[in-house]
Design a protein that fits this description.
Shape: globular
Distance between the termini: 36 Å
Number of domains: 2
Helix content: 10-25%
Structural class: alpha/beta
Largest sheet: 12 strands, mixed
Protein name: NON-INTRINSIC ABC protein 6
Number of strands: 22
Pfam family, one: SUFBD_core
Length: about 475
């Protein structure tokens, strides 16, 4: 059983907790501090150790915000109240039944601070538009925003010009509070986000150059604690508009122990298109819990390519909702578990509510360590009015070590009666016939095995449409596979 670093004896007595300190930021919106909410909750029923952990961490995140961020203040308020009653996930709850998240409570958690930028930091992205976030804060000196098409905005939410753009951004943020699938990690991000990186593309505009989001993290420098940061990104693409977004998550050299808890929300208008590439290559002592939520209007297209190879604990909650007919969604993901006790977890959910929707999902996974674990829980729901839907889902896993473990739950729920849907799952070691084929053509067994293992994952990696990012991901995979 995992131990929680907070216990009832480590907190101040209730009569001390009633002496509340004021929040460190001010806002015109009325707000009840989380500390007051937690006190009232504790009077009705004694909280468990894990609930105390949630409340204590939420209070720390609130107190670490020294500047107001009015556009997302309603989200902060809503999540502050939600965290009082939102339980910490356990193995008894279905979404986390196969995912051990005890690493998150193994050490005291503190809000991340801005660290000195090391000389090894990759200042120059290979892509023209670069947004750099250091521990969740957008760093202008390490970002590069060239001249953009008229009406396009890329930058911090603090710099969004007043007028129609700011109104549309505020409207998008307001709709985020209605998200019903959220969990405690979503609420942590709402409470602790110190900045929001915004990508706004107005109607009819196509941004030709991809926007490269570089998320860099570091620990507190203390071995006995874990730092936490909550980066947030908002992408709004209006009707007939188009943009490509590339996000990379990595740590400073010798970054120490940290917990990255990012959220990305994507709104795609009618006939809009978003190409989204995501590479997670955190160090082994990091935890990475991510939410990606995409909402697609009629005839829009969302393409997602993911390579997740780092972190001791990595979980991606990917939620897509089709909000109109003739909508296209394509998901390609690759997870690699190469280290002892490493966990890679993908939970995806695609909801189709309108006719003539199209979706394809390919998930691939390699587990090459006996103490490693991978989880795939993919849910595609075709609701009653989503007639003439064409949906396909495939998951393939490769187990390369004794006792290596993968749990797959492909799930295709069909309520409509006029659809074309299929899904499949396969788990195996390398095909001996394929190995024999290579050997028969003069390759030794090791070379043949390495080639088959690498190209199993390369099937997804090659779908990243940008060569520099694709080559970086391929190089990291080869390194972890010891090729």
């Amino acid at each position: 059983m995992s131990r929680c670093c907070y216990s009832s004896t480590s907190l101040l007595p209730p009569h001390h907790r009633l002496r509340l300190s004021p929040p460190l930021y001010s806002c015109s919106l009325p707000r009840k501090p989380l500390k007051a909410l937690s006190v009232s909750a504790s009077l009705s029923a004694p909280p468990s150790d894990k609930q105390l952990f949630v409340l204590e961490l939420a209070e720390k995140l609130e107190d670490s915000l020294s500047l107001p961020l009015p556009p997302i203040q309603p989200l902060r308020d809503t999540s502050s109240q939600s965290l009082v009653s939102t339980p910490w996930p356990t193995r008894q709850s279905e979404p986390f039944r196969f995912t051990d998240i005890s690493y998150l409570t193994k050490y005291p958690v503190v809000p991340a601070q801005i660290q000195t930028i090391p000389s090894s930091f990759p200042l120059n992205s290979s892509l023209p538009i670069q947004i750099t976030l250091i521990n969740g804060l957008l760093n202008p000196s390490l970002s590069r925003i060239p001249s953009l098409p008229a009406g396009v905005f890329v930058g911090s939410i603090k710099d969004v010009p007043q007028g129609p753009i700011s109104e549309k951004i505020s409207s998008a943020i307001a709709s985020c509070s209605e998200f019903k699938e959220k969990d405690v990690f979503w609420d942590f991000n709402n409470v602790g986000a110190a900045d929001v990186a915004v990508i706004f593309v107005p109607a009819g505009v196509k941004v030709l150059d991809p926007v490269h989001l570089m998320f860099c993290y570091s620990g507190s420098g203390k071995e006995e604690e874990m730092s936490m940061c909550n980066p947030r990104v908002l992408v709004v693409v209006e009707e007939d508009a188009e943009v490509s977004v590339v996000e990379e998550h990595f740590g400073f050299d010798g970054a120490g122990r940290y917990w990255a808890n990012p959220v990305m929300e994507i709104f795609i208008g009618e006939r809009g298109k978003v190409s989204h590439s995501y590479v997670q290559r955190q160090p082994l002592n990091a935890a990475h819990i991510k939410w990606t939520v995409a909402r697609q209007e009629a005839s829009s297209t969302y393409e997602h390519v993911e390579v997740s190879i780092g972190g001791l604990l990595s979980r991606h909650n990917l939620h897509i909702q089709q909000l109109g007919p003739e909508t296209v969604t394509e998901l390609s993901t690759f997870d690699l578990v190469s280290q002892s006790n490493q966990i890679q977890d993908l939970h995806s959910r695609l909801v189709l509510d309108y006719p003539k929707g199209y979706s394809r999902q390919l998930h691939k996974c390699i587990v090459c360590n006996s103490a490693g674990r991978a989880v795939f829980d993919g849910n595609i729901r075709v609701n009653r009015f989503a007639q003439n839907t064409d949906a396909g889902q495939q998951t393939r896993s490769l187990l390369l070590a004794p006792k290596a473990l993968v749990t797959v739950k492909p799930n295709l729920q069909i309520i409509a009666d006029d659809v074309k849907c299929a899904h499949g799952a396969a788990i195996s070691d390398l095909d001996q016939n394929e190995l024999f084929y290579f050997q028969a053509r003069g390759l030794d067994l090791k070379t043949a095995r390495n080639a088959l293992v690498y190209y199993f994952g390369a099937d997804v990696i090659r779908r990243i449409p940008f060569k520099p990012i694709r080559e970086t991901a391929a190089s990291e995979v080869k390194k972890l596979l010891s090729f």
